[in-house]
Amino acid sequence: MAKKPDTPLPPYFNLDPAAAADKLGEVVDTARFAKAAAFAGRGRDDLAKRGYAPDGRKRLRKFSTWEVCRYLIPVAPAHLRRVLNKNPDLPQGEGASGSKWFTLEEVLKLRDHFAEEGISTKEYRPYRPEGLPAKVVAVANFKGGVGKTSTAAHLAMSAALDGYKVLVVDLDSQGSMTSILGGQVADEWQTVFPLLARDYAEAVEAENKVRAAAGSDPIPLDETLTEAREVSLRNVVQETHWPNIDLIGAQLNLYWAEFQIPVWRMGLRNWALWDALTNALDQGGALDDYDVILLDTPPALGYLTINALAAADILMVPLGASFLEFDSTGRFFDMLYSTFASIEDGENAARRRAGLPEMKFEWDVVRALITRFDASQQTDLANVIQAYFGDMMNAYRQDYTALVGQAGESVSGIYEADYRNFNRETYTRGREVFDRTYAEFKELLIGSWWRDQQMEQQQSQQEETADGQAQTA
């Protein structure tokens, strides 16, 4: 009878301590971190430039007639060709008549033409009521790796392809969103940092006027705050390779805001630090210049994230269909409640003493969104998450597809990927994942605008009625 071979031991048995010590290398000091960071920085630049043109700048690819007619403008290819032949002043694209390629700038011009001349029942331009401000959308969760940046990037690109003008604000000092959009940020003065500093400086100046009237000593403005007073939102906004996406980028030094903001708050306790970004967007004209403002937040509930959440009209909370991410997201909501309820309690106590109306944080809508979904393994847990979060949960679950991974290798969004690099089915299926996510997001967006418009009209009617009654009396 043949002897059965011995079952091998697990690899963590019978390890030799001396051999293990030989693998340790030299003791690591702080200088070694600098060396590792330098190597990583060079590697990051090399990898990022995979999606760049030879001149070191990102370029947005062109879109074929097939893509234009299927995804961007609701017209048949034959009709598009007839319109182009009839209107030689319109962008004609490149290539043969049956296979033309258009830049996104050209697509936007074609969309404008069809909006003016096309069938009135078709949506050539996305819904956007006149006279109402942009919608501010924060994508947040304090657990890392849940797909915040990719979700924010694809929502921005989807909205841009749909015809909206978008501002993306990168609040994460890791700067991943900035890399995706090809931003160049030399230091913290090209991030939101000077905008937050300016808001504090303006609050100090207002306080100093009160102190001067009372004969008290002023709060000094240091060099940073004095310099920030000269920075406006337009100074830090940069164009991207997308014609209708602008960016306020981020880089590592932005993280210092998390230390500086509480120091400023200690210097002036009545400074509403959570409103700094809101004020910057408002005073800088962003709410009028853009349709959608997307805020990509760091994976922490720090001061930058608090500013983003306070500024937001719509909050999107990505999470994976796992217990840990569900648990973490629940704790995130708990911290949101604790943080903003605490701010409300503190502010309203002071407001009541001063005889002022109370303040309250409100959002048009909050939705959790399952990302990287694998239906074969995660459906049961996703159903449980859906049941517990209820109406705060998006209906659509965002599948993970090969297209996402391959686009990410070139530091690009899937909408930047050329479908000719995939088979048509892979591209169509991968794009549908984010198209459906955007469709559900767009419903939230236009529904919020419509509700605002109805409320504004009702308020206007009430004021007219009150004026009429006053005149009659």
Automatic annotation (TrEMBL):
SUPFAM superfamilies hit by this protein: P-loop containing nucleoside triphosphate hydrolases (SSF52540)
Alphabetical keyword list: Plasmid
Pfam families: AAA_31 (PF13614)
Keyword Transmembrane listed: no
Domain annotation AAA: ranges: 134-324
Tagged with keyword Iron: no
Official protein name in the record: AAA family ATPase
Protein species of origin: Leisingera caerulea
